[in-house]
Amino acid sequence: MAKSRLVEVYHARKHSPMSAHKAERIRKYGTMQFSAYTAEWLKGQRHQGPTSLRNIDSILRNHILPTLGSRRMGTFDHKVVEAFIADMERNGIGLATQINVYVRLKSILLDANRIGLYEESPTEGVQPPQYNPTRAAIPFLPQLHAIRTAGDDAFRLVAELMSGCGLRNGEAAAVNINNIVADDIYRVSEQVNYVTKT
Structural domain boundaries of the chain? Predict the structure, then answer.
């Protein structure tokens, strides 16, 4: 009696609309090449700004697609991801870049996992690259004074904003009066892209 009930439950689950829908997604995406899946995934990244999209494109083009682009989506598991990280290490890719590449790859594979392509995420249990930045060198007061008085007016303004307000290079270069929201509040909402100069 219990055995026949278990068989009945198994068949009900296997043939449920949800299972059929999942099986259809696995058929559609499982054989798809990573490069094609990534192209579809990119269409859903509408919330990303132009700079972020350029960064994603660069990571995909230079680091991920040359190695994984032709791999079928259904063949990813933690061993594939670990081997990819090991390849980056062997090829001397900097740790900061390795982390950015891994985060992007993980985002794409988690998207595939969410649609039911994997029983377990291919990044589950993977040890991501570890980046330990060197200690920041903070200039002494005489050095800071020399920096603040060097160069032209534009340079001195950028140096003042970076040292006084903690802005990064691109944020300081993009400062404008439109982002002053009160007498004593400047809202950082823009930055200059160092590649495009926009």
Answer: 31-114, 141-186
Nearest-5° Cα angle at 57, 54 to 61: 140
φ/ψ bin of 150: left (φ > 0), alpha (ψ from -120 to 50), beta (otherwise): beta
pLDDT tens readout for residues 13-46: 555 555 667 778 788 888 999 999 999 999 988 8
E-state strands within the chain: 180-182, 185-186
Report the predicted TM-score, pTM, of the whole model to 2 decimal places.
0.65
CATH class of 31-114: mainly alpha
Q: pLDDT tens across 98-152, in order?
A: 999 999 999 999 999 998 899 899 999 999 998 777 788 888 889 988 988 888 9
